[in-house]
Design brief:
Elements: E1 13-17, E2 20-23, E3 27-28, H1 44-56, E4 61-63, H2 72-81, E5 89-94, E6 96-97, E7 105-106, H3 110-124, E8 129-134, H4 143-155, E9 159-165, H5 169-176, E10 181-187, H6 196-205, E11 208-212, H7 217-222, H8 225-228, H9 233-240, H10 245-256, H11 269-277, H12 285-293
Helix pairs in contact: 1-2, 9-10
Length: 296
């Protein structure tokens, strides 16, 4: 596949609502920051080039969070892309804090979420966030209170669409009782399908399901599991398509459900183009079934 033919548009589209239609292969901007998702990237200019290349490849859905860096990912997106090209949707999240490099602490207090939202608006240089997602439930705060802040901020015009992340079925239904939820972002990949029930519910409702960690790259690097067996079904199917294992893993996600919106992330330009190239990989029904039924 030539560089000229790589396009996220080959993945099809999903209508998030309120006129926001995005290509079904997005980009997760967590890895454009420094090591451990902490601080600035080692090569600032390379990160800017990467983000601009994302849009050149017809990726028009970028997902980030105030906790990535913290703040660095949002700042880089604005520096690289603002004023945002027509049709590009920037989604961000609030509700996790980073008091230290390896700390990810929930903070769903209404006062924190209001401050977090205002900070994201400033860093992204917008008056309204396209899609704002509650990053995770805070066990110390009633979930209804946290979601209520997003509802109120939507009414105030600071948020266009609302999503939730890292939720179970009960939490999804609680959120839906408070606000119109257009997306759910949970961990999901070939190796981890623990959110399959949530995905199925999203499909019933037509809600976008955004799988984070879609490639399970940590496990791939360590060895073991489906992604780790070099001569297992994944590798054999990839060879059949003259594709990379990661491309087949993304293609499987796209085939798993019409509401799936994968957001593979990377800081490497070559990997970015490889990931977007997965949109053109068409798996047969037999291949999809083989990967789906394979025991982890």
């Amino acid at each position: 596949m030539s560089m000229e033919t790589i396009s996220a548009a080959a993945a099809g589209t999903h209508d998030l609502g309120d006129g926001l239609v995005v290509n079904r292969l997005g980009f997760g901007a967590m890895r454009v920051t420094g090591k451990d998702v902490w601080g600035p990237p080692a090569d600032h200019d390379a990160a800017i080039r990467l983000l601009r290349r994302v849009v050149e490849l017809d990726v028009n859905f970028l997902d980030t969070a105030d906790s990535y860096g913290p703040y660095v990912s949002e700042e880089l997106i604005a520096e690289a892309l603002h004023p945002y090209p027509k049709g590009v949707v920037i989604a961000t999240k609030g509700g996790l804090t980073r008091p230290a490099r390896h700390a990810w602490d929930e903070d769903g207090r209404p006062e924190h979420l209001r401050e977090a939202l205002d900070g994201s608006l400033r860093r992204l240089r917008v008056d309204r966030i396209d899609l704002y997602q509650l990053h995770a439930p805070d066990p110390e705060v009633p979930y209804e209170e946290s979601v209520g802040v997003l509802r109120d901020s939507q009414v105030d015009g600071k948020i266009r669409l609302v999503g939730v992340s890292n939720v179970d079925l009960d939490e999804l239904e609680i959120a839906r009782g408070i606000v119109d939820v257009v997306s759910v972002q949970n961990r999901f990949n070939l190796n981890d399908r623990s959110s399959e029930d949530v995905l199925d519910r999203c499909e019933e409702l037509g809600i976008a399901f955004i799988p984070w960690f879609p490639l399970d790259t940590g496990n791939l690097a360590k060895g073991g599991g489906l992604m780790r067996r070099s001569r297992g079904p994944l590798h054999e199917i990839a060879q059949r398509h003259a594709a990379a294992n990661a491309q087949v893993a993304i293609a499987w996600l796209l085939a798993r459900s019409p509401v799936m919106l994968p957001i593979p992330g990377t800081s490497n330009l070559e990997h970015l183009e490889e990931n977007v190239g997965a949109a053109a990989v068409e798996l047969s029904e037999e291949e999809i079934e083989e990967l789906t039924e394979e025991e982890m």
